[in-house]
Design brief:
Elements lengths: L1 E5 L4 H12 L3 E6 L6 H4 L5 E4 L7 H9 L6 E4 L11 H25 L3 E5 L3 H6 L4 H4 L2 H19 L3 E7 L1 E3 L8 H10 L4 E4 L5 E2 L1 E3 H14 L3 E5 L5 E2 H12 L6 E4 L23 H20 L1
Parallel strand pairs: 1-2, 1-4, 2-3, 4-5, 5-6, 6-11, 7-10, 8-13
Antiparallel strand pairs: 9-12
Helix pairs in contact: 1-9, 3-4, 4-7, 8-10, 8-11, 10-11
Length: 304
């Protein structure tokens, strides 16, 4: 089975590549810039294509690189994330990049007649659909994902193919230079630095470990699942709960933390409607333990 994987250099993309390759799939990855690190060398991508999917000539580039290969599935992980700026031009550019990239990869799928397309969206779209926490979840990234889902369905109507849409919650895991909250906290704890926790630490969020997400996607491909699915952990957790989990994993080493005057949004998944993908997600302690082993192995390889 041959899979074309966009965003292969990102957190989710790298783990998907590894899981797919382990299952015997041939993985061709699309990256905007090839990552240079040992962790990337072990990702499982057999071939990589350097293409900016948002560019006007990206479909032509893909056709030239492809040279007639047939694919069993496209998995579209590539996306620009939210920008921390009030600049309207930067926000508009992020939105357009995500939509243009999706339009182009859907067009290339049509040329290749690939029967399956899996699109990574976000669980924030579910909040928008239910008109919950509008101010907290509204962003160019979330809007691009919501409109991207509609774009995928429009293509399905014009050229019938198997469409899978996944809406993961906060995905955590380790790759070099990864700066999601849990990865940042764990690396600070390993360096004996202090962890800064917003407000009183009772902010609620939902976290799924990246390898579980990759395994769930593999299951979807193998079962030929169709439809839109929330990919969220059965239990929400507070920031304090995450700190406790890190401390348990680091025991007997002491994890230092302090509370800082900073407000961040919580996102409880209680009452969030929509089909939830049935998958065994590991606990936060299990995920952090796996991250710690991965981080330490990578550090030893880098130093040797």
């Amino acid at each position: 089975m041959r899979v074309l994987l966009t965003g292969a250099g990102g957190l989710i993309g790298r783990y998907c590549a590894k899981v797919f390759a382990t299952a015997g799939y041939e993985v061709i990855g699309i990256v905007r810039n090839k990552p240079v690190d040992e962790f990337w060398d072990d990702s499982g991508v057999s071939t990589n294509w350097l293409v900016d999917l948002a560019s006007k000539n990206s479909v032509d580039q893909l056709c030239d690189l492809n040279n007639g290969l047939k694919f069993d599935a496209f998995v579209h992980c590539a996306a620009d994330m939210s920008v921390n700026t009030s600049d309207n031009q930067a926000q508009h550019a992020l939105y357009r990049n995500n939509i243009d990239s999706l339009w182009n990869i859907l067009g290339f799928r049509q040329i290749c007649s690939t029967p399956t397309f899996l699109y990574f969206s976000t669980f924030f779209v579910s909040y928008l659909e239910q008109r919950q926490q509008m101010q907290s979840v509204m962003s160019p990234y979330t809007l691009s994902k919501m409109h991207g889902e509609s774009l995928c369905r429009m293509f399905v109507e014009n050229d019938d193919f198997r469409l899978m849409v996944v809406r993961p919650s906060f995905v955590y895991g380790f790759i070099p230079q990864q700066d999601d909250l849990i990865s940042k906290w764990l690396q600070l704890a390993l360096l004996d630095d202090e962890l800064h926790v917003a407000s009183d630490g009772e902010t609620i969020r939902n976290y799924v470990y990246v390898k579980d997400v990759a395994n769930a996607v593999l299951k979807m491909l193998e079962n030929r699942t169709t439809g839109t699915y929330l990919m969220i952990h059965p239990e929400d957790i507070s920031f304090n709960g995450v700190i406790t989990a890190i401390a348990d994993v680091m025991s007997p080493k002491r994890v230092m933390h302090e509370y800082v005057d900073m407000q961040v949004s919580g996102f409880s998944t209680d009452g969030l409607r929509g089909a939830r993908f049935d998958h065994c997600f590991r606990t936060i302690e299990q995920g952090i333990t796996h991250m710690k082993r991965t981080y330490e192995t990578h550090s030893r390889n880098t130093q040797s």
